[in-house]
Amino acid sequence: MSVLVYTESEQGTFKKTAYEVASYAKGIADMLGTDVAAISFHAADAGELGTYGVSRLHNCTDAKLEKFQAAAYADAIAQAAQAEDAKVIVISSSADSKYLGSLLSVHLDAGYVSNVVELPSSADPFTVKRSVFTNKAFSNTQISTDRKLVGLSKNAYGLKENPTDCAVQDFAPTLKDEDFKVNVQSVDKATDKVTIADAEVVVSAGRGMKGPENWHMIEELADVLGAATACSKPVSDMGWRPHGEHVGQTGKPVASNLYIAIGISGAIQHLAGINSSKVKVVINTDPEAPFFKAADYGVVGDAFEVVPALTEKLKAFKAANA
Amino acid sequence: MKILVCISHVPDTTSKINFTDNDTQFDTNGVQFVINPNDEFGLTRAMWFKEKQGASVEVVTVGGAEVEPTLRKALAIGADTAIRVDTPAVDGYAVAKELADVVKNGGYDLVIAGRESIDYNGGMVPGMVAAMTGASFVNTCISLEIDGDKATAVREIDGGKETVTATLPLIIGGQKGLVEESDLRIPNMRGIMMARKKQLDVKPSVNATPETTTVKFEKPAPKGEVTLVDADNLDKLIDLLHNEAKAI
Ligand SMILES: Cc1cc2nc3c(=O)[nH]c(=O)nc-3n(C[C@H](O)[C@H](O)[C@H](O)COP(=O)(O)OP(=O)(O)OC[C@H]3O[C@@H](n4cnc5c(N)ncnc54)[C@H](O)[C@@H]3O)c2cc1C
After folding, report:
1. Pocket test residue of A136, A202, A207 for ligand 1, highest count of atoms within 8 A of CB
2. Is the dihedral of CA A67, A69, A73, A76 positive or negative?
3. Which of A179, A214, A233 is where one domain is finished?
């Protein structure tokens, strides 16, 4: 018996969320008195999995699994869970992991809880806390099945070092034709940009920016901070910015360390998407904007003056602290 | 083409979230319920298939009699018939099991569900139904075309999008992008009148046993006051972000 974790990688290298889910799985394994095994696809090596408490990596190198395939990945992870006799399986809350999670849950008859924010408060009955109502509340949820599938929210647990030796072994799942009913034709990904999902810092702007031609200010500020850019819903509805940047209840959730909101009023639907960000900064001309109630730091001022000035000052700060 | 649209009956997005019964139940007092926004995009796309490709559109909700106004709204928007599975929606798994039974017996070519419901945000139901029925599954779908028994879909991925093809029967987890926001429909008087005459079947539950239970809800701890920084003193903001918040 062990805790199995699915560690996501890109072009052979583990993503930061892989180390976060590994850290979390180690926390559960300690509660259960067992160890952590990982499964990954086309990982170049064990990376730092050992640092975060993983004892074994099952690495699938089947050529058919080089690109993400929800059904096939779910099937392979289910087989690894069976091989490990894993009672708890941990995945992340990335778009891909959520996609395969529901399939995996049915394959394994494992009760599934997504958006989990803490270690279980009890191992028996197995009870975890997850965010619900788009981050406006939490539910302490009990899983009653023998096997449990936990989807961890990004940045909720952080990285915890637990050095151990990680052995890598090749894992060859038996794949079926049904695993390949959905075929990827093309992928269109802005590879040079930080994505909202992975970003530590997000610079987001709303209708207060007046028009798409003013977004260079937002991009320059984001550049200095190595941040991803995002926007409010009307901004993407009007086509000023791509839909993928829309943050909120009907858009993307953001769980960054720092969220800077510029010219965004802070409507409840927008706030729903950013509640799990750690530090929030608001720049707005209107001191009554509801966003100030949700923010940690605020500047009442005109974005057209504040943003360029802040960018310059941050450049100097970065240069001095490099 | 026969389409089933799964509709989740959720609190309106501006609802205040409170709990009752010792924090074990969602407090519906004064709460407006609506069609889940992700499902609304899916329903509108289904209407497009109905009008342009002659599809029939059925909608389904798992829930007690209180969800019927939401189903009637979907009928008023243009769905042909509706099914209510008569049992409370207790967890994602149980809802999926009930829906899978409808799907298995309905002979649908396409099942459209929302990526997630904005109440419990589990994002589990569409994929579980697909796994339970053996249908192809595409999640976070932002564009969908059907030609014969072939589907071409675009799905949102972290940092971009991906185009996929799949064979029917297909189930999608849809979201904003599936149709333009401006194409979403508000029921008109004629639609509302017609909806009253449309068939709404109440189907008995298969009595799926949930796999998860909420033992207690909690609200986030109240947040402290915002620290305001003068627009002429941005060095102070940088100092606070660096030394106090440790965010840069
Ligand atoms: C079902 C539903 C779902 C929704 N989902 C979402 C969602 O997911 N995400 C989302 O964002 N919204 C969502 N909304 C919309 C939401 O209610 C708000 O309309 C939206 O968030 C407002 O965007 P905004 O703050 O950019 O624009 P506005 O409300 O127009 O606010 C602009 C702000 O900019 C400030 N401003 C103006 N000029 C300047 C300047 N020069 N410098 C600094 N500040 C300035 C103003 O004071 C104001 O506060 C949803 C609505 C509905 C009904």
Report:
1. A207
2. negative
3. A179
